[in-house]
Amino acid sequence: MKSFILTLSCPDQPGIVAAITQKLAEQTFNIVDSQQYSAPETGQYFMRIGFDGDTTCARVQDLLADTASHFDMTLQVDDAAARPRVLILLSKFDHCLIDLIYRQQVGSLKMEIAGIASNHETGLHWAEDAGLTYHTLGGREAKVDNEAKLDALIAHEKIDMVILARYMQVLTPEFVARHSGRIINIHHSFLPSFKGAEPYSQAHKRGVKIIGATAHFVTADLDEGPIITQGVEPVRHDMDVASFIDVGRDTERRTLARAVRLLTERRVFLNGNKTVVFE
Amino acid sequence: MKSFILTLSCPDQPGIVAAITQKLAEQTFNIVDSQQYSAPETGQYFMRIGFDGDTTCARVQDLLADTASHFDMTLQVDDAAARPRVLILLSKFDHCLIDLIYRQQVGSLKMEIAGIASNHETGLHWAEDAGLTYHTLGGREAKVDNEAKLDALIAHEKIDMVILARYMQVLTPEFVARHSGRIINIHHSFLPSFKGAEPYSQAHKRGVKIIGATAHFVTADLDEGPIITQGVEPVRHDMDVASFIDVGRDTERRTLARAVRLLTERRVFLNGNKTVVFE
Amino acid sequence: MKSFILTLSCPDQPGIVAAITQKLAEQTFNIVDSQQYSAPETGQYFMRIGFDGDTTCARVQDLLADTASHFDMTLQVDDAAARPRVLILLSKFDHCLIDLIYRQQVGSLKMEIAGIASNHETGLHWAEDAGLTYHTLGGREAKVDNEAKLDALIAHEKIDMVILARYMQVLTPEFVARHSGRIINIHHSFLPSFKGAEPYSQAHKRGVKIIGATAHFVTADLDEGPIITQGVEPVRHDMDVASFIDVGRDTERRTLARAVRLLTERRVFLNGNKTVVFE
Amino acid sequence: MKSFILTLSCPDQPGIVAAITQKLAEQTFNIVDSQQYSAPETGQYFMRIGFDGDTTCARVQDLLADTASHFDMTLQVDDAAARPRVLILLSKFDHCLIDLIYRQQVGSLKMEIAGIASNHETGLHWAEDAGLTYHTLGGREAKVDNEAKLDALIAHEKIDMVILARYMQVLTPEFVARHSGRIINIHHSFLPSFKGAEPYSQAHKRGVKIIGATAHFVTADLDEGPIITQGVEPVRHDMDVASFIDVGRDTERRTLARAVRLLTERRVFLNGNKTVVFE
């Protein structure tokens, strides 16, 4: 007996759940967990089912092929024990990288870190320490080369998810389009407040009493991607920008880790410019 | 087309979801929302399904009768628009009562307040103001009479849920047993810390830095009932017990309101001495 | 023996604390609580001292007059038991009004509600119920008359603080200037996100995962006033705008009440376009 | 010009602030930050003053010696830039250790890690990696030797604070007494709930909806020491004990780091079995 996760989305219509669960029941698969949501704005239906059975992903895909086709479904079956392969990008700040590595090591994040890429050396030590490959990228002027290198890495390493863990370079719309739905970013503000550069300085200047971080899918439109999760922390008048950055480090790593966990557990769906998150 | 909520629990086994959803699909009912959980400790399976259809609760109950019997289910079908009838009990403190009334009035809590009962007069004004019947109870020495009066009220008013909104009298085990799973309480501490009397004084004495409130089902074992939801609030060294009580008032009413909302939406299941809450 | 609160601000320079506390010590006043802050951006110094003594506000003002003049201080002495007189403005939504009245009644907010003014009738019942005077304002077209009426009220009732408790009319820059530092507003978003109209709709459309409320001083520049305090609440993909509004109601009233408490306790200072809050 | 932190406690009486600040003013020291609190239960007065001046700690101690003696003060002057020397103890779980090291390295926690001691090898790698000395302790049976070794270390390394970062051995009352007020612990529950062993299992069994962590001073009475700060995190019915532990790891390291920061900034005072924390 193995555990599987079935995720699907399709235009909403009657009979979806029955069609799927009927097929699973015929094989005496046991559904242990399920969530679904019908989005009024987009008319899309989203479902996540956890089930146990003596089978394989490929066989379940086959089993459901006709149903998926009939309902025009995007349907995926994953081994619940399978670990998505991730590529972590960072620039100078390493707190998110360190945290992701640690959470992976203690089994809190069930993923394989297939590589780390950066235009700085800050993360190198941590990569080596964890036995991970560190790919060096060029600076702003090397964008074309960088993205070619990343494309090759993603293909070669069969990357499921690219995590921008404080990667400070803007990706080209073309690159983003090629890997649509597979790149996430941690923005160091409570979006849509303080888009763009130096959000902590902006927040400090505005005199807010709470700061935050936002994990979101990366789209061509900077800081406008679908939000996965957000975190906040109170701040006080006697804190300077450096204190905001210090407090924010914690919020960022926690918020990014939560987003990564949700994604590795296949709990996140794109729904137009928003997300459906089954927690 | 009307909306319904189907809730069920039964011993876990393969085929439950398929059996149920198949029946719903045959009638072209449309499932809009569903959650389920299989509890390892008790071996119980819990499911909540929201669906739309041109039918009635009774007809759905009939439709599923054989399945329910086959799987040994406790199964209930409710009109999603139906409003549970509640009886609110309080003693001297009226903040939870006022909040429940207001939330009911603005449509935040979808319930009918079928009556208010108290051994104090504090709530009378608010009851009258809202056009609600106020039943006067006796003090500690009148426990037998009080509970007889409450039994009659519950029967006569077809009460679905009794809310102890800071009712400071201990109910007898017999009364609790008669209305098992239908009485909830707000305890003014973060249980299991500070059971019993004057939890804010206890918390102040211990020097905690966070206080809380706990909404739970009432069982014969005082302050030991299954927890539905909890709320917390930070406190500081320069706050006295009165300040704890003041801050706590907010936490209590918010935590109780959240529990009542979860219950009116049929999101809460008893699972041994714990609860399953589908949020 | 009575309790007093001394608040002051002035250009930062050595000797301020000593000068003040020396004068208080000479009278054998006992300092029970004090906080101070020197703001690097503005060069301003802020201090709040709670002390006990057998004296009067006027006598302390006299006692400190030379010091205040020497250091170019804005200095105020208040009887700690004195209750600021507030005027509450609202439009259609009454949840903040009801909450402010209740908190005043149970002693949680130490203020006198000197009047309520509104361009709607929603709050009338609550005002009458609490024995408070309800002043009816005209709509958008009557702005000149409304503000004249408010000016008269503020003067006649010796209003210390005007609370916009979901008052949906924009005040003129002239009115705001006349009562600078004495008008606060609750904005139903986590500013600076979602300025302007219908912030919950904006938040819903953007797909944020946390919503908020912001209590701030009102300035001529709409939604740009100095922030006093902010509150947040998580939201989910399956909540519609109405649910955001429902959840937000709670956050708004809690955030506004916190701001009012801070102000009635003289814990808030204006520091350029920001605030210093001694909590 | 250097920055200093003056902390003191003494029996409450009039004139304390004036006496101290007068002395500071005579030297044209500039007070930039100050907080004070008079505790009604113990009659003790607590003060923390941050000031700038062209002087040394010893000279300020001298300057205030008479005043300190007159008011029976426990008074300490620290260079604001001085970094307390800490000794970190752990057993098997290394998440708090790693976090403390990282926060120290990025400058978030201003302390010197003078050594790490453990009865397990888990932390060894991290110590070596950070260039820190790792002292190996024996197991339960070697308590006498362990404490002798720790006593020597504390003396030799001039340790200001011992941090039990998930050290699972109970210290003897004698050891605790010898280092009273200088040992802090992170307990992995929201005290006073779930004292003793395996608090996450206890919490899971009780079915709580929020778990927590508590940083407290260590006293002879286990899990009863004065609480410095507490942190909480929501949990759900579908989380097992391992998930509680996983979520808790985050709460523990964050709560411990907050306590350590408060202590390194001299913001924490013992007040009987409670703490005064100037945040």
Descriptive notes:
The structure is a homotetramer of 279-residue chains. The first copy, chain A, has 279 residues and is α/β, with parallel strands linked by helices. Chain A folds into 2 domains: 2-79, Alpha-Beta Plaits, CATH 3.30.70.260; 85-277, Rossmann fold (3-Layer(aba) Sandwich). Chain A is built from 8 helices and 13 strands. In chain A, the strands form 3 sheets. Chain A has a 7-stranded mixed β-sheet, sandwiched between helices. In chain A, strands 2-3-1-4 form a 4-stranded antiparallel β-sheet, with helices on one face. In chain A, strands 12-13 form a two-stranded antiparallel ribbon. In chain A, strand 5, helix 3 (95-105) and strand 6 form a beta-alpha-beta unit. The longest helix of chain A is centred in the C-terminal third of the chain and has 24 residues, at 241-264. Chain A is globular and about 60 Å long. The interface between B and D is medium-sized, with 31 and 31 residues.
